[in-house]
Design a protein that fits this description.
Elements (H helix, E strand, L loop, with lengths): L2 H12 L4 E6 L3 E8 L2 H13 L5 E8 L21 E7 L3 H10 L6 E4 L16 E2 L10 H20 L3 E2 L3 E5 L2 H18 L5 E4 H7 L9 E5 L3 E3 L1 H14 L3 E3 L4 E7 L2 E7 L2 E10 L5 H7 L10 E8 L11 E4 L3 H6 L6 E4 L5 E4 L3 E2 L10 H12 L10 E9 L8 E4 L6 E5 L5 H20 L23 H10 L6 E3 L4 E2 H10 L6 H8 L12 H12 L25
Parallel strand pairs: 2-3, 4-5, 4-15, 5-12, 8-17, 15-23
Antiparallel strand pairs: 1-2, 6-11, 7-11, 8-10, 9-10, 13-14, 14-15, 16-19, 16-20, 16-21, 18-19, 22-23, 24-25
Helix pairs in contact: 3-7, 3-11, 4-11, 13-14, 13-15
């Protein structure tokens, strides 16, 4: 028995579990057997990963307290993709898949994105707080830090090129206890130097309270990081994918990958609910489902353990109570170190709302988007502690996202181990949104190396423009836009001041059949206080007119229901 095996047995014994293991290719540790509780297996694999004796820990343990999850799959069955051939197939239309598509779109490659949902960025890529993180709590030798550092230089130029909002308003950590603040100052100074990231401004009492007048006065010390901020995660993802689409990338929605065809140690075909296609290179950017895709691809050498987190969206009455910087309150660096939620906080959004959250809870279920009342109550209690003016009456909506960490708690961005022509972008959790532009560049470089391509297309679109919104224009711009299309002068969403012209343009820009939810994410129609009570009928009528279908056939959100299915009604 080797020293590594003895160490593994010692850790198993510490956890008091009756499980077995085997070592794969002298690199990967596979845990096998049965445990009574799912969390027992997660804790064991996390402890094993911390030893760094293996590149990855694979969790093949069966937990007796876990019921088989019914994963959402689109009901569509057709031959849309049958027989088509591509150079690159990207599985997953989240921010990572969109970043890869954007980077590859300017090269002479035929690329397709396969996304199982009815729109892009509906899972982790939109179910997060949109923070562009400072990078202070990342390990020096991690891929997370490498990609975050590179992305921090890319995000502002990219927002200008693709015309999406980026609010570089900084983030703040506040303390009430001087001892903790002093310890934090030493720790943060060290992390700024060792991680080679921009520094912070230390604020005491009056300066802190001036910046955050609604902060509880028990908090007297703050560390402000001016080099980070926030984006709208789905706006950024849509901008990336629209740019890719403008440059020839195909996007196939409602497309579920069911398996692969192989020749020797290469993938030659992809089986989907919409027909079988061929691809020379596959990119696995499927988020929390990355391990499932790796299994289907015969390249299973890492594991994902889903972790859910809930955010509460506050209405615009909350926005004036905050400075424009995101804020986290801590009285213990140890508590922050143990947290997988980056501490959580009160986050002003680029759309002039505020978010509070998230928390972090291990879950065996990849599609678990439930919001528990206990979690909602706990989040408000936590953040009212240092921002007393927040109240539950400000709640606009809430949502849960499921992150996709591996047991090493670091990104995987690399060619496959057993299969030659697959690239995995897996284990992408916070700061995944911040790091997405850099990850896209690395995926692009791996693809170009595979195909031995060095030159871009001779003629490609350089920029992408957003859908014009009347509320963002001056009088002269409004007049010019309304003259070009009178529907821009008709407001259909009063809460967010969105005109019919913007809705019509959003319908035109959808990659596939537009849904009410897809239009909502593109122009914020229905995101105000009435949550679509006033504007939804008009949006639905516009979609019906565009698709030439009956109103009852307009889809609210994919297979999850049309208006009649979810119990809605329209007045004549």
């Amino acid at each position: 028995m080797t020293a590594r095996e003895r160490k593994v047995l010692k850790i198993i014994k510490k956890h008091q579990l009756e499980v077995s293991f085997h070592i794969v290719d002298n690199l990967f540790l596979s845990m096998d057997g049965t445990v009574d509780h799912y969390l027992d297996g997660v804790k064991l694999c996390l402890d094993l990963a911390k030893t760094k004796l293996f590149k990855h820990v694979i969790n093949n343990l069966k937990a007796l307290d876990v019921e088989e999850e019914k994963i959402y799959k689109p009901s569509i069955k057709d031959e849309k993709l049958e027989g088509l051939e591509y150079d690159v197939a990207i599985i997953g239309g989240g921010v990572i898949g969109a970043s890869a598509a954007m980077q590859l779109s300017i090269y002479p490659l035929k690329v397709i994105v396969l996304e199982k949902e009815e729109d892009i960025a509906l899972e982790a890529s939109s179910r997060n707080d949109g923070c562009i993180h400072p990078g202070i709590d990342l390990k020096k030798d991690s891929l997370k830090l490498y990609h975050l550092r590179r992305s921090l230089k890319m995000i502002k130029p990219l927002s200008e090129q693709l015309d999406f909002d980026y609010a570089e308003d900084g983030q703040m950590i506040v303390f009430s206890n001087w001892a903790y603040a002093f310890a934090a100052k030493i720790y943060l100074s060290h992390k700024v130097r060792s991680n080679n990231i921009p520094g912070y401004v230390f604020l005491k009492k009056e300066k802190l309270w001036k910046k955050e007048p609604n902060l509880d006065k028990n908090f007297k010390y703050g560390f402000f990081f001016p080099h980070c901020g926030a984006v709208s995660p789905y706006e950024m993802s849509i901008a990336l994918m629209e740019y890719a689409h403008l440059n020839g990338v195909d996007v196939s929605l409602n497309t579920y990958v069911e398996g692969f065809d192989f020749k020797d140690d290469e993938i030659v075909g992809i089986k989907t609910n919409r027909g079988n296609l061929r691809a020379k290179l596959v990119i696995n950017a499927s988020g929390v489902f990355a391990e499932d895709v790796a299994k289907l691809a015969h390249d299973h050498y890492f594991s994902i353990h889903p972790r859910k987190g809930t955010d509460i969206i506050l209405d615009k009455d909350s926005y004036p109570l905050l400075s424009r910087s995101g804020m986290t309150a801590l009285d213990s660096l140890k508590a922050r170190k143990k947290s997988h939620s980056k501490g959580g906080g009160v986050i002003p959004t680029v759309d002039k709302n505020a978010l509070i959250g998230p928390n972090a809870i291990e879950t065996p279920y990849k599609d678990d988007y439930s919001v528990d009342r206990e979690v909602y109550e706990a989040l408000f209690k936590k953040y009212q502690h240092y921002m007393p003016s927040l109240n539950k009456g400000m709640t606009l909506a809430y949502f849960t996202g499921v992150r996709a960490p591996n047991y090493e708690e670091d990104f995987i961005v690399e060619r496959g181990h057993f299969i030659k022509n697959i690239i995995h972008a897996a284990g992408i959790q916070s700061p995944g949104l911040t790091s997405a532009p850099s990850i896209g560049v690395t995926i692009k470089d791996l693809c170009l190396d595979y195909f031995n391509i060095h030159e871009t297309k001779k003629d490609y679109v350089k920029t992408r423009k957003r859908i014009p919104l009347i509320k963002n224009l001056n009088d002269e711009e409004k007049e010019k836009l309304i003259k070009s299309d009178a529907s821009y002068g008709k407001i259909c969403c009063r809460c967010e001041e969105i005109s019919l012209g913007s809705v019509k343009e959003a319908i035109r820009r959808c990659f596939d059949v537009p849904t009410v939810d897809a239009i909502k994410k593109r122009v914020r129609v229905g995101m105000g206080k009435c949550q679509g009570g006033f504007c939804r009928p008009e949006v639905m009528m516009e979609i019906a007119k565009s698709l030439k279908v009956d109103l009852k056939d307009v889809i609210i959100k994919g297979d999850k229901g049309n208006l009649l299915d979810i119990g809605g009604h329209l007045d004549d």
